[in-house]
């Protein structure tokens, strides 16, 4: 397959006044190098953690020189987000044009193009692209512009799902499935590097098979909207968990830096002094949020491991329970994107290691289903990543499906994740 088309020249945010007239080939080359270095720095350290000085040094400039291209770090980050959005939009447009008439062909083409792009980035044949973890770290006006562009890109991905096979789906159902597809594309960036880059297209085909056709073995039906009824809920929160829930909501909404102590305290209608009575620092609180989320995941997956029934039924039960928890009064779970703003690499690595171990537990339940025949033959590691992406992305589902709640989320979201995006509503 040919490489993804080259990125268009960086055009936003607006150039520094006076610089537009000086856009020569050399200027453009240096600006592209800055964007490449900045994307890698923001991915590793977060928008707030990366510095203009370090980014400038990567491309042989001093900090004052880089401001000729982007006056502020936030402008540079905005340009990186815009560049990544343009690249993802181009993938969706190509998939729509090249993928054929069926939803399955277009979705497969989209995931193959995305895998090609990731391979090209990992082999340094394509500039790095920023992850979408840290948009909320931008000032409000810039974040709003980026979210508007991201929403437009989301519509392009949703268009891949429109066709005779999905004509009976309502708007909410189609939005939920588009969110699943786009979330899996983003989630893949975090684990596909365990494979060789020349394997990425093969992996993408397996991802497409799971996404489109689900996990159920031959003759297996959906267990029903109350599929989680047999799993005991996580232990009841104690009084201190109110801080954890408020902090988790704010970090998911506004990022680590945006979730200030003042905002957390205001959401709970308590003083900052009360906050510091429970937690020494905000980092201690965010660490506790991760541990709470991990505890909920462990509890539910352990219950699914020990429950009666087929591997298929137990995988459904775990997914339904965890997605419903996300939208319940006890949710949400902390999104994996929060790791980008943790202050040191060791801390981030520890969180990622725990996430991967929990994903392996999901794979274990799926292997049980492969053994008993209730899960159809497929790569259980990839299927487990699909379920992990489904659970994680549920924390932001209301952005795309405002009317979703605990009562309808299984029908709109969780069931098509396990039965496949081509399944009936």
The span between the termini is: 34 Å
C-alpha geometry: globular
- Main β sheet profile: none
Number of domains: 2
CATH topology of the largest domain: Tetracycline Repressor, domain 2
The residue fraction in helices comes out at 55-70%
| The CATH superfamily title of the largest domain | Tetracycline Repressor, domain 2
Which residues sit in consecutive blocks of at least 5 with pLDDT less than 50? 1-10
Indicate the structural class: mainly alpha
Instruction: Tell me, rounded to a whole number, the average pLDDT.
Output: 88
Percent of residues in β-strands: under 5%
Say how many strands there are.
Answer: 0
Based on CA atoms alone, the radius of gyration comes out at 22 Å
Q: What is the succession of H and E elements?
A: HHHHHHHHHHHHHHHHH
**CATH architectural category of the largest domain:** Orthogonal Bundle
The number of helical segments is 17
Description:
With 425 residues, this protein is an all-alpha fold. It has 2 domains: 22-167, Tetracycline Repressor, domain 2 (Orthogonal Bundle), CATH 1.10.357; 216-419, Tetracycline Repressor, domain 2, CATH 1.10.357.10. It is built from 17 helices and no strands.
């Amino acid at each position: 397959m040919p490489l993804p088309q080259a990125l268009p020249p960086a055009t936003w945010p607006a150039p520094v006044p006076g610089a537009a007239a000086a856009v020569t080939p050399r200027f453009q080359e240096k600006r592209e190098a800055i964007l490449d270095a900045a994307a890698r720095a923001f991915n590793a350290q977060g928008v707030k953690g990366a510095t203009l000085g370090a980014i400038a040094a990567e491309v042989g400039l001093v900090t004052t020189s880089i401001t000729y291209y982007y006056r502020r770090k936030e402008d540079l980050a905005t340009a990186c987000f815009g560049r990544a959005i343009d690249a993802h939009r181009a993938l969706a447009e190509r998939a729509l044009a090249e993928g054929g008439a069926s939803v399955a062909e277009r979705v497969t083409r989209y995931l193959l193009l995305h895998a090609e792009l990731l391979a090209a980035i990992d082999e340094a044949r394509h500039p790095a692209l920023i992850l979408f973890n840290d948009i909320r770290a931008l000032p409000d006006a810039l974040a709003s512009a980026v979210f508007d562009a991201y929403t437009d890109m989301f519509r392009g991905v949703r268009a891949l799902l429109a066709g005779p096979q999905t004509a009976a789906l309502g708007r909410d159902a189609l939005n939920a499935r588009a969110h699943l597809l786009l979330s899996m594309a983003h989630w893949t960036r975090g684990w596909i590097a365990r494979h060789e880059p020349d394997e990425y297209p093969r992996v993408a085909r397996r991802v497409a098979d799971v996404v489109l056709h689900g996990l159920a073995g031959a003759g297996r039906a959906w267990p029903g909207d109350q599929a989680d009824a047999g799993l005991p809920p996580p232990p009841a929160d104690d009084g201190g968990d109110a801080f954890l829930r408020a902090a988790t909501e704010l970090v998911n909404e506004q990022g680590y830096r945006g979730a200030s102590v003042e905002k957390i305290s205001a959401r709970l209608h308590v003083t900052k002094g009360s906050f510091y009575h429970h937690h020494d620092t905000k980092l201690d609180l965010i660490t506790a949020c991760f541990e709470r989320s991990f505890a909920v995941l462990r509890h539910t997956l352990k219950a699914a491991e020990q429950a009666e029934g087929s591997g298929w039924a137990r995988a459904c039960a775990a997914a339904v329970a965890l997605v419903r928890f996300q939208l319940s009064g006890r949710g949400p779970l902390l999104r994996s994107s929060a790791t980008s703003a943790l202050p040191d690499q060791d801390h981030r690595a520890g969180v990622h290691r725990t996430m991967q171990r929990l994903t392996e537990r999901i794979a274990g339940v799926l292997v049980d289903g492969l053994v008993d025949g209730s899960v159809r033959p497929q790569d259980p590691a990839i299927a487990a990543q699909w379920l992990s992406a489904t659970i994680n992305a549920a924390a932001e589902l209301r952005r795309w499906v405002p009317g979703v709640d605990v009562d309808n989320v299984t029908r709109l979201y969780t069931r098509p994740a396990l039965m496949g995006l081509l399944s009936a509503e």
